[in-house]
Design brief:
By secondary structure, the chain is α+β, with helices and mostly antiparallel strands. It has four helices and six strands; from the N terminus they run βββαβααββα.
Length: about 160
Amino acid sequence: MSELYDIKVKDQKGEDVSLSDYSGKVLLIVNTATGCGFTPQYEGLEKMYKELNGQGLEILDFPCNQFGNQAPGTDEEIQSFCQLKYDTTFPRFKKIDVNGENESELYTYLKKQQGGVLGSKIKWNFTKFLVDREGNVVDRFAPTDTPEKISSKVRELL
């Protein structure tokens, strides 16, 4: 199994991005959807990002359409929606699968590190993984855990 920083993901244009680019940063990795009851969390995520990015926080957004077909758009449509409706500025990547035979290597790794009380499968959109500056996956939050609720744990790592 690779280490977090050995994993490559695809950006919005389909280009490879190495997670090593984020070495030394605190990461909040989130699987998102534009048509979900939790979609308004984009507002809190953006607020957290604007407030804490200068201190070393990066929020990595991975749209996922595996739960109730709630992210049906193209990558471009998702990007446009997030920027227009929530004015998001944090990095957004290509749509991925977080469970099953086509799941992203990143999510295989995250779930192995933080299966926890939630089990290994991602249950829904807006599951969040918190990674410290050394690349250790230190926490996993349920979709119901809002950015405001987890803010103190994020700040502890900064």
